[in-house]
């Protein structure tokens, strides 16, 4: 199965699991800007904050406290913590769950999901930064073991930059999940 086929498989499962929340496939974060980079997220879970001065912070704060969504996010968080494993003793900082839920207050969507497989490290870094920037919670689904290790290395690198006081980017709202973990969660 290709990553696009996998994306097409989990998209309706997410719609069912998170019932009632708008979900978009291949979501374009910024429209109408001619001289502005506009990332495209594989799957985005709304509500969507696309109008100036009309962010969805209150709606996100409400949603992350709803039992079904909180359970779903907690399972993703637990998978992430399990995946980082001993890496957390390296450079990766994992915030407490409740801090994670409130990390990106000016997000453009509730969840920004990127599915990565055989892309370059630079492409994967871009996906990671876009997901962390656009979503209240960014999710990287590692489709392969190589991509999983790349996600880990990038988070370690960004953590290292922060520790040594270099310019860096806060990605502590980004969760690394394997395709098997996401499939398991969506089929629970």
Q: Could you characterize what this model shows?
A:
The protein has 188 residues and is α/β, with parallel strands linked by helices. Helices cover 46% and strands 18% of the residues. It has helices spanning 3-17, 57-63, 67-84, 97-101, 121-134, 145-163, 179-186; strands at residues 23-28, 40-45, 109-116, 135-142, 174-178. Strands 1-2-3-4-5 form a 5-stranded mixed sheet, sandwiched between helices. Strand 4 (135-142), helix 6 (145-163) and strand 5 form a beta-alpha-beta unit. Helix 1 (3-17) packs parallel to helix 7 and helix 5 packs across helix 6. The chain is globular.
Overall pLDDT score: 92
General shape = globular
> What's the total number of strands?
5
Radius of gyration: 16 Å
Q: List SSEs in N-to-C order.
A: HEEHHHEHEHEH
Structural category is alpha/beta
Q: Estimate percent helicity.
A: 40-55%
The low-confidence runs, each spanning 5 or more residues with pLDDT under 50, are none
How is this fold's topology laid out?
Elements: H1 3-17, E1 23-28, E2 40-45, H2 57-63, H3 67-84, H4 97-101, E3 109-116, H5 121-134, E4 135-142, H6 145-163, E5 174-178, H7 179-186
Parallel strand pairs: 3-4, 4-5
Antiparallel strand pairs: 1-2, 2-3
Helix pairs in contact: 1-7, 5-6
How would you briefly describe this protein structure?
By secondary structure, the chain is of the alpha/beta class.
Summary keywords:
single chain; 188 residues; alpha/beta; 5-stranded mixed sheet; 18% strand; globular
């Amino acid at each position: 199965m290709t990553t696009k086929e996998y994306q097409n498989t989990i998209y309706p499962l997410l719609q069912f699991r998170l019932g009632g929340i708008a979900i978009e496939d291949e979501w374009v974060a910024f429209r109408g800007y001619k001289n502005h980079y506009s990332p495209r997220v594989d799957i985005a879970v709304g509500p969507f904050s696309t109008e100036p001065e009309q962010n969805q912070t209150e709606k996100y704060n409400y949603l992350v406290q709803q039992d079904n969504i909180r359970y779903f996010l907690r399972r993703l968080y637990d998978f992430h913590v399990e995946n980082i494993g001993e890496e957390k003793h390296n450079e990766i900082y994992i915030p407490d769950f409740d801090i994670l839920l409130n990390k990106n207050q000016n997000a453009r969507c509730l969840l920004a999901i990127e599915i990565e497989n055989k892309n370059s490290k630079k492409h994967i870094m871009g996906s990671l930064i876009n997901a962390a920037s656009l979503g209240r919670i960014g999710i990287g689904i590692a489709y392969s073991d190589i991509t999983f290790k790349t996600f880990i290395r990038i988070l370690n690198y960004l953590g290292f930059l922060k520790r040594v006081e270099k310019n860096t980017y806060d990605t502590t709202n980004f969760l690394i999940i394997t395709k098997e973990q996401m499939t398991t969660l969506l089929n629970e």
